[in-house]
Design a protein that fits this description.
By secondary structure, the chain is mostly helical. Helix content is 85%, strand content 0%. It starts with a helix and ends with a helix.
């Protein structure tokens, strides 16, 4: 399942974070980072998914 989340984090970073943690602080932070730039959103999404 982590591989699917990682692929989604690359394509749509907020979706990958949502599948990992739900509608929490990290989800909204990731949306904000993705709006500032796609790369910061991906980095944050990968960090959230891989830190468990």
């Amino acid at each position: 399942m982590d591989i699917i989340r990682i692929l989604l984090a690359i394509l749509l970073p907020p979706l990958g974070v949502f599948l990992q943690v739900g509608l929490g602080l990290h989800f909204w932070l990731n949306i904000l980072l993705t709006l500032f730039g796609w790369l910061p959103g991906i980095i944050h999404a990968l960090w959230v998914i891989l830190r468990k």
